[in-house]
Amino acid sequence: MRRDVFQAIADPTRREIIDLISQQSLNLNAVADHFDMSRPAVSKHIKILMECGLIMIRQDGRERYCEPQLQKIREVAAWAEKYKTFWSQKLDALESFLEEENQPKS
After folding, report:
1. Which of 8, 79, 84, 91 is positioned for an S-S bond with 52, CB 3.0–4.6 A?
2. How is domain 5-72 classified at the architecture level of CATH?
């Protein structure tokens, strides 16, 4: 199954994993210790993040470390940016409407 960055960030656990390792590289056990779920469940989340290109695993001796590869997040930012203008215009129009409605009637 082909996965993309949007599927990866759709899950709150995966977003939290991204947040954790964006601050510092952590070994797999350290990542799993932050969650109230089984290590195999955390491993599945990490696997999806790897498949989407958001993290990589670096082997250092016997330890495996998760490291961020957050360039793919730019895809999400670029996608969301397209809608920023649209929503800004809609919110500006709403603000104008509400100001007109709150004007005293003469």
Report:
1. 8
2. Orthogonal Bundle (1.10)
